[in-house]
Protein backbone atom coordinates (compact mmCIF):
# COMPACT_ATOMS: atom_id res chain seq x y z
CA UNK A 1 0.00 0.00 0.00
CA UNK A 2 2.77 2.46 0.88
CA UNK A 3 4.62 1.78 -2.35
CA UNK A 4 1.76 3.29 -4.38
CA UNK A 5 1.06 6.11 -1.91
CA UNK A 6 4.72 7.09 -1.57
CA UNK A 7 5.44 6.94 -5.29
CA UNK A 8 5.60 10.58 -6.50
CA UNK A 9 4.49 9.68 -10.03
CA UNK A 10 1.31 8.00 -8.81
CA UNK A 11 0.56 10.66 -6.21
CA UNK A 12 1.10 13.58 -8.61
CA UNK A 13 -1.04 11.95 -11.29
CA UNK A 14 -3.87 11.36 -8.82
CA UNK A 15 -3.57 14.93 -7.51
CA UNK A 16 -3.66 16.40 -11.03
CA UNK A 17 -6.68 14.22 -11.86
CA UNK A 18 -8.67 15.93 -9.10
CA UNK A 19 -8.48 19.24 -10.96
CA UNK A 20 -9.47 17.97 -14.41
CA UNK A 21 -12.98 18.38 -15.74
CA UNK A 22 -15.36 15.61 -14.70
CA UNK A 23 -18.83 15.05 -16.12
CA UNK A 24 -20.18 13.63 -12.87
CA UNK A 25 -19.26 16.55 -10.59
CA UNK A 26 -21.14 19.65 -9.61
CA UNK A 27 -20.27 22.78 -11.53
CA UNK A 28 -20.23 25.91 -9.40
CA UNK A 29 -20.48 28.45 -12.22
CA UNK A 30 -21.76 26.50 -15.23
CA UNK A 31 -24.66 24.24 -16.05
CA UNK A 32 -24.26 20.51 -15.54
CA UNK A 33 -26.48 17.44 -15.24
CA UNK A 34 -24.74 16.65 -11.93
CA UNK A 35 -26.04 19.97 -10.56
CA UNK A 36 -29.50 18.42 -10.33
CA UNK A 37 -28.13 16.39 -7.38
CA UNK A 38 -27.46 19.48 -5.23
CA UNK A 39 -30.37 18.82 -2.81
CA UNK A 40 -28.87 15.45 -1.93
CA UNK A 41 -25.29 16.79 -1.71
CA UNK A 42 -26.07 19.87 0.40
CA UNK A 43 -29.21 18.77 2.23
CA UNK A 44 -28.28 15.35 3.58
CA UNK A 45 -25.51 13.72 5.56
CA UNK A 46 -24.07 10.21 5.24
CA UNK A 47 -24.53 9.75 9.00
CA UNK A 48 -28.30 10.34 9.06
CA UNK A 49 -31.19 9.11 6.97
CA UNK A 50 -32.08 11.12 3.86
CA UNK A 51 -35.40 12.18 5.36
CA UNK A 52 -33.84 13.34 8.65
CA UNK A 53 -33.94 17.03 9.60
CA UNK A 54 -31.04 16.60 12.01
CA UNK A 55 -28.36 18.17 9.79
CA UNK A 56 -30.50 21.21 9.01
CA UNK A 57 -31.50 21.61 12.66
CA UNK A 58 -27.85 21.40 13.79
CA UNK A 59 -26.78 23.95 11.20
CA UNK A 60 -29.66 26.24 12.19
CA UNK A 61 -28.82 26.05 15.90
CA UNK A 62 -25.14 26.69 15.24
CA UNK A 63 -25.97 29.59 12.90
CA UNK A 64 -28.25 31.12 15.55
CA UNK A 65 -25.53 30.83 18.20
CA UNK A 66 -22.96 32.44 15.91
CA UNK A 67 -25.34 35.24 14.88
CA UNK A 68 -26.07 36.08 18.54
CA UNK A 69 -22.35 35.94 19.36
CA UNK A 70 -21.50 38.15 16.38
CA UNK A 71 -24.11 40.76 17.36
CA UNK A 72 -22.93 40.80 20.97
CA UNK A 73 -19.31 41.05 19.85
CA UNK A 74 -20.15 43.96 17.53
CA UNK A 75 -22.11 45.80 20.24
CA UNK A 76 -19.45 45.39 22.93
CA UNK A 77 -16.26 45.74 20.86
CA UNK A 78 -17.14 47.88 17.82
CA UNK A 79 -14.95 50.81 18.94
CA UNK A 80 -15.78 53.18 16.10
CA UNK A 81 -15.25 50.64 13.34
CA UNK A 82 -11.94 49.25 14.56
CA UNK A 83 -13.70 45.91 15.01
CA UNK A 84 -13.10 45.21 11.30
CA UNK A 85 -9.28 45.43 11.49
CA UNK A 86 -8.93 42.21 13.46
CA UNK A 87 -8.54 38.99 11.49
CA UNK A 88 -10.34 36.98 14.18
CA UNK A 89 -13.40 39.22 13.83
CA UNK A 90 -13.39 38.90 10.05
CA UNK A 91 -13.08 35.13 10.39
CA UNK A 92 -16.02 35.15 12.77
CA UNK A 93 -18.01 37.16 10.21
CA UNK A 94 -17.21 34.66 7.42
CA UNK A 95 -17.96 31.64 9.63
CA UNK A 96 -21.29 33.14 10.63
CA UNK A 97 -22.19 33.90 7.02
CA UNK A 98 -21.25 30.35 6.01
CA UNK A 99 -23.39 28.74 8.70
CA UNK A 100 -26.38 30.94 7.86
CA UNK A 101 -26.10 30.02 4.17
CA UNK A 102 -25.46 26.35 5.03
CA UNK A 103 -28.61 26.25 7.17
CA UNK A 104 -30.71 27.86 4.43
CA UNK A 105 -29.22 25.52 1.81
CA UNK A 106 -29.89 22.46 3.99
CA UNK A 107 -33.54 23.39 4.50
CA UNK A 108 -34.02 24.20 0.80
CA UNK A 109 -32.34 20.93 -0.18
CA UNK A 110 -34.59 18.95 2.16
CA UNK A 111 -37.68 20.62 0.79
CA UNK A 112 -36.54 19.85 -2.77
CA UNK A 113 -35.87 16.21 -1.87
CA UNK A 114 -39.31 15.81 -0.33
CA UNK A 115 -41.21 17.15 -3.33
CA UNK A 116 -38.91 15.85 -6.05
CA UNK A 117 -39.98 12.97 -8.23
CA UNK A 118 -37.53 10.62 -9.93
CA UNK A 119 -37.10 12.64 -13.11
CA UNK A 120 -34.13 12.13 -15.39
CA UNK A 121 -31.34 14.57 -14.51
CA UNK A 122 -31.37 17.75 -16.56
CA UNK A 123 -28.56 20.17 -17.22
CA UNK A 124 -29.06 22.99 -14.76
CA UNK A 125 -27.24 25.70 -12.84
CA UNK A 126 -26.92 25.72 -9.07
CA UNK A 127 -29.19 28.13 -7.16
CA UNK A 128 -27.35 31.26 -5.95
CA UNK A 129 -27.52 30.27 -2.27
CA UNK A 130 -25.92 26.88 -3.02
CA UNK A 131 -23.08 28.55 -4.93
CA UNK A 132 -22.60 31.05 -2.10
CA UNK A 133 -22.45 28.25 0.48
CA UNK A 134 -19.93 26.40 -1.64
CA UNK A 135 -17.70 29.48 -2.03
CA UNK A 136 -17.81 30.30 1.68
SSE series: HHHHHH
Radius of gyration: 20 Å
Q: What's the helix count?
A: 6
The proportion of strand residues reads: under 5%
Mean pLDDT: 85
Distance between the termini: 35 Å
User: Structural class, please?
Assistant: mainly alpha
Low-confidence stretches: none
Global morphology = globular
Largest sheet: none
Q: Helicity range of the residues?
A: 55-70%
What's the β-strand tally? 0
Could you characterize the architecture of this molecule?
With 136 residues, the protein is mostly helical. It contains 6 helices and no strands. The chain has helices at residues 2-5, 8-18, 38-43, 54-77, 87-115, 128-135. Helix 4 (54-77) runs antiparallel to helix 5 and helix 5 runs antiparallel to helix 6 (128-135). It is globular, with a radius of gyration of 20 Å. The model has no long low-confidence stretch (mean pLDDT 85).
What's the topology here?
Elements: H1 2-5, H2 8-18, H3 38-43, H4 54-77, H5 87-115, H6 128-135
Helix pairs in contact: 4-5, 5-6
Amino acid sequence: QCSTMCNPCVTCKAFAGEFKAHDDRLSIFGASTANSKWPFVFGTSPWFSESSNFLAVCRTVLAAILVVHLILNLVVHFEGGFWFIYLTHLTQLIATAYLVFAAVTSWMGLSQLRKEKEDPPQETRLPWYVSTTWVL
